[in-house]
Amino acid sequence: MTVLDYPGTGKENSISLDYLSTVTGLSKRKVREEISRINTAGEEIICTEAKGNGYYIAASIEEAQAYRRYNKSYWLSGIEKDKGILKCMERKFSGQIAMDMEG
Fold first, then answer.
1. CA–CA gap between residue 82 and residue 86 (Å, rounded)
2. Angstrom distance (rounded) from CA 4 to CA 45
3. Which of 30, 38, 54, 57 could, after both became Cys, cross-link 14 (CB 3.0–4.6 A)?
4. Whole-number average pLDDT of the chain
5. 90 within 8 A of 99, measured Cβ to Cβ
6. Is the pLDDT of residue 79 over 60?
7. What are phi and psi of 48, to 5 degrees?
8. Predicted TM-score of the model (pTM)
9. Cα(31)–Cα(20) distance, integer angstroms
10. Contact 43, 2 (CB under 8 A)
């Protein structure tokens, strides 16, 4: 069985990361990686709530859109964090490293 075999359909049927890790025998990190792979591949839409209450398969366009908005805000905040890190690197390590703007 795979990670995709366990989440219920709809927010009300969400299951915890602990449960997914236990039933699949995967570490929590590997479960999250597998969920990311599934979503990235377009196999299914496995959602999680901002509060981290659990994972579930989108039952409606509204659930899918809500998860997409959450996910988008998450990566946008990561971009802002990266800008701050870059700014600090430029200030703190000026002249010591070649700046790589892409990664």
1. 6
2. 10
3. 54
4. 86
5. yes
6. yes
7. -140, 155
8. 0.73
9. 7
10. no
